[in-house]
Write a structure and sequence with these properties.
The protein has 217 residues and is an alpha+beta fold. The protein contains 7 helices and 10 strands. It has helices spanning 7-23, 35-51, 92-96, 136-147, 152-161, 168-180, 201-206, and strands at 3-4, 25-26, 54-55, 72-78, 83-86, 101-112, 117-128, 189-191, 196-199, 213-215. Strands 2, 4, 6, 7 and 10 form a 5-stranded mixed β-sheet that branches. Strands 5-9-8 form a 3-stranded antiparallel β-sheet, with no helix packed on it.
């Protein structure tokens, strides 16, 4: 009988997978410079790796997050440009987080002409708790405003300056929530777009040194 997957086991298996995959020579991705294709390959391979041992509710990029039962999404990104897209739900995600944790695999791809194979050297595996998945500049800016005894008008002006995709009614509602429930500092960089653009340079730099951003491998 398979074991039920937990977040603790997910982290342990991610470290084991990263070590093994970094040594693997893969012919199908030789010469491929498409980050989406590489990401899909690693995501499918990691899920297959887990399925041999564990029971868990499966998700997908098309359906939502990868591990809905654990409230964890998997992201695969290049070491050279550590970023990925994310479905847009509301501007509130920039302030209070995505609503789920993120398991990030950061790889460096190396092609070998002699063998016509490549290595995906997984440089980092990082787990960002859902409480830390908000935007760094937005949450630190809000923290400074609150330290200076900001009122609703101050918060609304700040949100407008940050060009969050919200109308006046949403801005007033968010300002009230921020004043009554100050957000925690997030460590992602989240760019406004039709989809959120998540950037991971800060979590790579801070992993292991701040609460909620864990370096697994």
């Amino acid at each position: 009988m398979k074991t039920k997957l937990t977040i603790k086991l997910l982290k342990q298996e991610a470290a084991i997978f990263a070590k093994r995959e970094s040594k693997h020579a893969e012919p199908s991705l030789y010469g491929v410079d498409n980050g989406k294709k590489v990401g899909t390959y690693l995501e499918h391979k990691f899920r297959g790796f887990l399925q041999r041992k564990y029971n868990y509710k499966e998700g997908s990029s098309a359906k939502g997050i990868d591990f809905p039962g654990l409230r964890v999404d998997m992201k695969v990104t290049s070491f050279k440009q550590p970023q990925s897209s994310c479905p847009f739900k509301s501007a509130r995600q920039k302030i209070y987080g995505l609503g789920y944790s993120v398991l990030v695999f950061v790889y460096l791809k190396q092609d070998h002409r002699k063998t016509s194979k490549c290595n995906l050297n997984i440089k980092h595996v990082i787990f960002v708790n859902k409480e830390r998945t908000a935007d760094f500049q937005t949450t630190t800016g809000i923290a400074k405003l609150l330290e200076n005894e900001a009122n609703q008008d101050d918060i609304i002006a700040f949100l407008q300056d940050r060009m969050l995709p919200i109308d006046d009614i949403q801005a007033h509602s968010l300002a009230d929530e921020i004043l009554s429930n100050p957000p925690k500092i997030g460590y992602l960089t989240i760019s406004n777009a039709l989809q959120w653009r998540l950037q991971y340079s800060r979590v790579i730099a801070e992993a292991g040194s701040v609460s909620g951003v864990q370096k697994i491998s």
